[in-house]
Every structure is written in structure tokens, then in C-alpha cells.
Design a protein that fits this description.
mainly alpha, about 65% helix, 19 helices, about 575 residues
Length: about 575
């Protein structure tokens, strides 16, 4: 048990130590400074600029950057729909997997371009290798999209008075070629040498000890697993994700994959510090996020290592903790740590079945998606945190009796209203969707037949989890919910779209408006945002909004299940 705890402590420390130099490197990349990869990657970047007709020196306003982002994402959506609905007759389909139905293709296309990666299918039997490679492409560019928009916000925070905030296409390409690609190559090589397949051959056959002929799915898995982790995508090559021994063969690969989940989200905080020349602000934001993360991790690890109380009452000892739905390769502590890591970010990958977590661990995983800003997804996690910072600055300004200011810019009604709407949007999408699903389940059993394997408190948790996962662009699920039906495919898809793009549009609009304002030098009465006091204020704002918004729903699900269990 002590070894397991020491293991996850070492992983967290290693992740932070790696993120600090990575953040500085990313800052140099986005600032156009020289890096050691320039001789190799400069020609590749220039090739993409030439193919796309991109003028890297062209500076865009926030509206032009937003239009570019939405346009290219729409093109990716169309491409995904074409491939997924026609993959049965397209090449690279050695196992003869069928084309997707329109509703499943819609859900999958939206899921991957929005960096959500909810999978209402099993990759082994539902997606061809061409389909997997197409989805892998979206795992790069959806992550790059979040990073590019985040950097545009950094530029807006940095500049004193301007309406020019860089070039979305340049930031997108640099994010993919200079950051995501090198890290994905390193991860794929480690996975490959530990046994993860990387082949275009179809299923392999072997005869088991019982004499049965077994078909084992293979495919170009190593490359996809690496980018799904580093890009906080989470969509696995196989149905059970990183609980599959091909996706995650041993504790070494598990360590790499769980470090990859939060590496770039932490690194981007130090990128902000480098670009703004405000290291203290970066550390303040990091400490706030780390405290929130650890408040979810510590009780989750405790409850999973403690075991299931109901089983204990039956006189059965649980020396390895609660092991239902978990892999012996990883144990209960690593499974809980991975589960929280994947849900405080928009990663959503799993090395254990979240549906089998003890109730309060499941609650903390949901809570991570509810606040959706303790590190969060690559780029978009900071955008969500930025919304809470704006709200905290507004509240702080009211408390000290001065016009709220952030980084030398006056915060006025328009920006505060946008931030409030974006904060409330996530609540509306998740709880509104859950209310609709509960209504249909109780009033239209003909439509809801087969949805839930666990009616009652846990069934409510399964539906609640599904919509929080969609709204937070997370992608993990309580697998007791059978979601591959038109209702869930369509409603999930719509919520993923709204939950992805409005929380990008809102912070980008705020940053653009703020950047265009007159710079006001700091004075003795200015609210300092790089202090422990402000950090506590931001943390309080996040938890108060989350508690008021979500705790009643949590009481109906995991909290009620916990008390019923004991």
C-alpha cells in the first residue's frame, strides 16, 4: 500500500518537474524565438504555410482568429462524417468493419473534433484503420486548436493596447508540429517497445488452452495512444481504452500515460508566465489548480484503497482495496489517481472502469468535470480558469470598493456578463440534459428500454456523468449506460458542440475586448492577482459556484449511493 502511494506521489512530482521546462520551451515556440528543433521543423512549418496559403506574418483580430478556428473545424467535421459513414468500402479495412449509422457518425465526428472523444462504439469492431487514422488526425488538430486559442488569450493578456492578437493558423501549426508531434513520437516509441501494436495487419488468431480459436484485434495503436494522452483526447484504439493490455501493457506505460494527461495543461501555465514575464502569476494559478486537483485525488485514493464497505460487511477482506473493474497491473491507488487526472482534464481515458469506482470516488471524478478548470484540457482548461479569474476579479473589485482591474485593464459590465454566461452554460447543459433524460426514462419506457443496467441512485449517476462528460468535453463514461442509441448520440453531440465552442468564444471575446482597452498602470489600490489572497479568492469562487450548482444533483446520485452502501 505504501509503495502505491509513493508511486503516485513520484508521478505528480515528475509531472511538475517536466512541465516547467516544457512551459518555457512552448513560450519560446509561440514567441517565435529560436529552439533546438528549428532546423528540423522550420521546413515542415513552411510547407504547411505554402499548402494552406497562410501568411505567417499576418496579424489577426480576435474576431478573425475566431472565424478561422470555426471555419476549419467545420471542414474537419464534414471530413469525419464522410469517412465514418463510408469506411466499409474505403481502404485500410482488413477486418471488414461496417460503416457507421448517421447518428453514431455525427456523435463520433463531433466528439473527436471537439477534443471530447466520447466513444459509443468499440474500436475493434466499429472503426476501420482508415477511420482510426482519421480520428487520430483530429486528436492532433483538436488539441492544437485549444492550444492556439489559449495562446491568443495569452497575447491579449500580454499586450498593453492592441487589436492584433497573432495568427490562429500559425499557432495551430506550431502546436501540432513543435509540441504535440515530438511528444507523441516519444510516447509511441516507449509504448511500441513495451508491446503496444503498430501494424496495419488485421486480426490475429490463436488457439487458447481450452482449445478455442480466438481473434485478437491489432492495428496502428501505439501512435494513437500517445496522442490521445498528450492531447487530453482520451479516445482509445480499443473499447476498454487504457485498461486494455495492448494500449497500456504495464506500470511503466501507465506512468508515462498518466504523466502525459496533465503535462501540457501544467506547462501552459508556465508558458503564460514566460510570455507575460509574470512567473509569480503563473505559480499562483498553478498552486490554485494543484490544490483543487489534490482535494479530489486524496479522498479518491483513500476510498479505493480502503475497499468497498458493503463487501467488508460481508466478512470479506480486501487487501488490495476495491478491485472491482480494475487491473491488477495497476492497483487501486493508481486507478483512482488516473481517474481523477483524466476527469479534471478533458482527457477521459481510463485504466479502470469508472462505473465500478466506490460512490465518492465517482463523485470526485464528476466534480472534476463540473469545475472543468483544475488544469483542464490542453488550452481550454486555462480558458475555463480564465472565466473564474474574471469573476473573481469582479468580486474582488467590489470588495475593495474600486473598479475591477486585471493586468492593467478595467473590467466592465460586458466582460463580466460574458464570463457569467459561460460559467452558467456548463451548468445548464449538463443538468438540463440529465433532467431531459430522466423525464424520458420515467415517462417513455419504450424509448428508454435498455438504457440503464443499474436503475436507482447509480443509474441517475450514470446519466448525470454522461452529460457532464459531454459538456466538459471529457469523454469518459459510466459504462453501465448503454448510450449507442439515437437519443444519446444526438443529445450528446449537440451538448459537446455547445460545450466546446461557446466556452472558447467567450474567453476569446473577453480577451479581445480587454486587449483593445487603454492600459492603466498599477497603483497602490490595484487588486494584486499574483498573491495568495487572490489565489484563495479564485479557489473560493470556483468551489462556491460548483457547490451551489451541482451538489443537489450529486446528493441524488453518488452521495445517496454512498449512504445506502454503508
Amino acid at each position: 500500500m505504501n509503495t502505491e502511494i509513493l508511486g503516485i506521489i513520484a508521478l505528480f512530482v515528475a509531472m511538475v518537474l517536466l512541465a516547467i521546462p516544457l512551459g518555457k520551451y512552448m513560450g519560446k515556440v509561440y514567441e517565435g524565438e529560436r529552439t533546438w528543433l528549428d532546423p528540423v521543423l522550420n521546413p515542415i512549418d513552411k510547407l504547411f504555410y505554402w499548402i494552406g496559403g497562410i501568411k505567417p506574418e499576418k496579424q489577426m483580430t480576435w474576431k478573425e482568429n475566431l472565424f478561422a478556428m470555426l471555419l476549419i473545424n467545420f471542414v474537419w467535421f464534414i471530413l469525419a462524417m464522410i469517412v465514418l459513414m463510408n469506411q466499409s468500402w474505403l481502404p485500410l479495412n482488413p477486418d471488414g468493419n461496417p460503416s457507421m449509422t448517421p447518428d453514431l457518425a455525427f456523435n463520433t465526428a463531433v466528439s473527436f473534433i471537439s477534443n471530447t472523444n466520447i466513444q459509443h462504439y468499440s474500436g475493434e469492431s466499429a472503426v476501420s484503420y482508415l477511420g482510426q487514422l482519421t480520428l487520430q488526425f483530429f486528436q492532433f488538430v483538436s488539441a492544437g486548436t485549444g492550444m492556439a486559442v489559449c495562446v491568443i488569450v495569452f497575447v491579449a493578456m500580454k499586450e498593453r493596447t492592441t487589436d492584433k492578437l497573432g495568427n490562429f493558423y500559425v499557432y495551430l501549426i506550431k502546436s501540432c508540429t513543435r509540441i504535440l508531434l515530438p511528444l507523441a513520437i516519444v510516447g509511441a516509441i516507449v509504448l511500441l517497445f513495451n508491446g503496444t501494436p503498430m501494424t496495419f495487419e488485421g486480426k490475429a488468431q490463436y488457439v487458447s488452452l481450452q482449445g478455442d480459436t480466438v481473434n485478437v484485434s491489432r492495428g496502428p495503436s501505439a501512435a494513437m495512444v500517445a496522442i490521445k494522452q498528450i492531447g487530453t483526447n482520451g479516445g482509445g484504439f480499443y473499447g476498454v481504452n487504457s485498461a486494455h493490455p495492448f494500449e497500456n501493457p504495464n506500470y511503466l506505460t501507465a506512468s508515462l500515460e498518466v504523466i502525459y494527461i496533465i503535462l501540457i495543461p501544467i506547462g501552459l501555465l508556465f508558458t503564460m508566465g514566460y510570455m507575460l514575464k509574470r512567473k509569480r502569476l503563473a505559480w499562483t494559478f498553478f498552486i490554485v489548480m494543484a490544490i483543487g486537483f489534490l482535494l479530489f485525488v486524496i479522498p479518491s485514493v483513500f476510498y479505493e484503497m480502503k475497499g468497498n464497505t458493503a463487501i467488508t460487511h460481508m466478512g470479506i477482506t480486501q487487501p488490495m482495496g476495491s478491485m472491482e473493474g480494475k487491473e491488477v497491473r495497476f492497483g487501486s491507488a493508481m486507478s483512482a489517481y488516473w481517474g481523477v487526472s483524466a476527469t479534471v482534464t478533458s482527457n477521459g481515458s481510463v485504466c479502470a472502469m469508472h462505473d465500478s469506482f466506490t460512490p465518492l470516488t465517482g463523485m470526485f471524478c464528476m466534480w472534476g468535470m463540473m469545475v472543468n478548470c483544475f488544469f483542464g484540457g490542453v488550452g481550454v482548461g486555462f480558458l475555463n480558469f480564465y472565466i473564474f479569474v474574471i469573476i473573481a476579479v469582479f468580486i474582488g473589485g467590489l470588495m475593495v470598493g474600486r473598479t475591477p482591474e486585471f493586468l492593467g485593464k478595467k473590467l466592465e459590465a460586458k466582460e463580466t456578463k460574458i464570463a457569467t454566461i459561460i460559467a452558467l452554460l456548463h451548468i445548464f447543459l449538463a443538468l438540463g440534459g440529465t433532467a431531459l433524460a430522466c423525464h424520458i426514462y420515467n415517462t417513455r419506457p419504450d424509448l428508454a428500454s435498455g438504457w440503464l443496467n443499474n436503475p436507482g441512485y447509480h443509474g441517475f449517476s450514470e446519466m448525470l456523468y454522461e452529460y457532464f462528460s459531454a459538456s466538459a468535453n471529457n469523454g469518459s463514461e459510466f459504462a453501465g449506460l448503454s448510450a449507442n442509441v439515437p437519443f444519446w448520440n444526438i443529445t450528446d453531440g449537440v451538448i459537446m458542440l455547445i460545450g466546446r465552442y461557446l466556452p472558447i468564444i467567450g474567453p476569446l471575446a473577453i480577451a479581445g475586448i480587454m486587449a483593445n482597452k487603454k492600459y492603466v498602470p498599477e497603483s497602490a489600490g490595484t487588486l494584486k492577482t499574483d498573491t495568495s489572497t487572490f489565489g484563495i479568492l479564485v479557489l473560493a469562487v470556483i468551489f462556491i459556484i460548483a457547490a451551489l450548482s451541482f451538489f443537489p444533483a450529486l446528493v441524488l446520485g453518488p452521495v445517496a449511493e454512498f449512504f445506502k452502501m454503508i
